[in-house]
Write a structure and sequence with these properties.
Layout lengths: L9 E19 L5 E20 L5 E5 L11 H13 L6 E6 L10 H16 L6 H8 L6 H6 L2 E6 L3 E4 L8 E6 L7 H12 L7 H13 L4 H5 L10 H7 L1 H12 L6 E3 L6 E5 L2 H10 L1 H6 L3 E6 L6 E3 L4
Parallel strand pairs: 3-4
Antiparallel strand pairs: 1-2, 1-11, 2-4, 2-5, 5-6, 7-9, 7-10, 8-9
The structure holds cytidine-5'-monophosphate.
Cytidine-5'-monophosphate binds next to β2 and α5.
């Protein structure tokens, strides 16, 4: 889709969350990050970044969520500065209002999606004309999941998560119910640290072994229909360590597995959010409505979502 032409002074960038349809830890890299084989999928749960030009060369951030810093450590500010430095135009300014809907510390890449939306939005807003591939390349400097969030859809992700192979699919009809206990967050570094402590003895050590695993992931059919068949290739390695130390994850997985029509059930990323796939959005939404009381009783926030075939979306009008 061709994004709408940016209004001179105002632009909205829609930042979509992701789920992991697969997350396999292959080994550890020289830079200390884990070597991964993943399949990520954008969903229609999104944050909104409202960008307004300012004349004083400042990059500012306001958010509706007081748990989030609006300082230099926020990925939105980091992304804006990174882009401005890359093009060497330090006179460019923007005021960003972040409307947060994606839960934080949830394994849904909310922060990464916001950074991706900042890059795509400002590239348009500041008329920089960088290619999407350049934005993806730049973004990996500040986070492993950001390159995926730029272009989104359903993609295989290798390396730290930044090496993307788009799947050639034309249907994204699946629906999902996503749940998260609002009282807990999982730290991604802690989840990987725990995984390493427990499973390092099984890590593969060289690139040719990684490549064998990558080829297996490439050979799997990741279409909607195939996912509904609930194959056992689909896995989230981090679930093996996060689930035992987070009872809320086990509770979420149990409830999701029991829902009528629920197919593949998994944790997303490093958790604690979990999801169940359904044939389509209408079915997921119907089941959600019928089980609202059960989710409430279990203390879980729940959403019915659809899949997105792309990542960041731009517009310059409220809809
Ligand atoms: O890149 P990102 O900021 O998302 O990573 C957060 C942390 O998660 C890293 O500091 C690292 O501890 C862990 N991580 C990892 N291997 C990856 C991605 C993340 O060990 N491929």
């Amino acid at each position: 889709m061709v994004p709408p032409k940016a209004n001179e002074d105002f632009l909205i960038a829609e930042a979509h969350a992701k789920i992991n349809l697969h997350l396999e830890v292959l080994g550890i890299r020289d830079d200390g990050f884990h070597e991964l084989a993943m399949v990520m999928q954008s969903i229609n749960l999104s944050d909104q970044l409202r960008m307004t030009k300012n004349e004083d060369n400042n990059i500012t951030l306001k958010t509706n969520n007081n748990e989030i810093s609006n300082g230099e450590d926020n990925l939105v500010i980091k992304a804006a500065r990174l882009l401005r430095n890359k093009v060497g135009k330090t006179q460019l300014g923007v005021d960003i209002e972040l409307v947060k809907n994606i839960p934080i510390g949830a394994g849904l890449a909310g922060g990464s999606a916001d950074a991706a939306a900042t890059l795509v939005g400002l590239n348009k807003f500041w008329n920089l004309n960088l290619e999407v591939s350049e934005l993806e390349k730049l973004s990996k400097e500040i986070g492993s999941d950001i390159p995926f969030c730029v272009s989104g859809g359903r993609q295989i992700c290798f390396g730290r998560g930044e090496i993307l192979e788009r799947l050639n699919l034309d249907r994204f009809d699946l629906g999902l119910i996503l749940v998260k206990d609002p009282s807990i967050q999982v730290s991604t570094p802690v989840a990987y640290k725990k995984y390493k402590e427990e499973f390092e003895h099984r890590y593969l050590e060289n690139d040719s072994d990684f490549e064998v695993k990558r080829n297996i992931v490439r050979s799997i059919n990741w279409s909607d229909q195939s996912l509904l068949d609930n194959r056992k290739e689909v896995q989230n390695d981090l679930q093996k360590v996060v689930c035992p130390m987070t009872p809320e994850v086990e509770k979420s997985l149990n409830i999701l597995s029991r829902l009528p029509g629920s197919r593949l059930v998994s944790m997303s990323g490093s958790g604690p959010s979990c999801f169940a796939l359904f044939e389509n959005y209408n079915q997921a939404n119907k089941v959600l409505k019928e089980h609202v009381n059960e989710f409430e009783k279990a203390g879980l926030s729940a959403w019915a979502c659809s899949m997105k075939s792309n990542g960041v979306q731009l517009r310059n009008e409220f809809t």
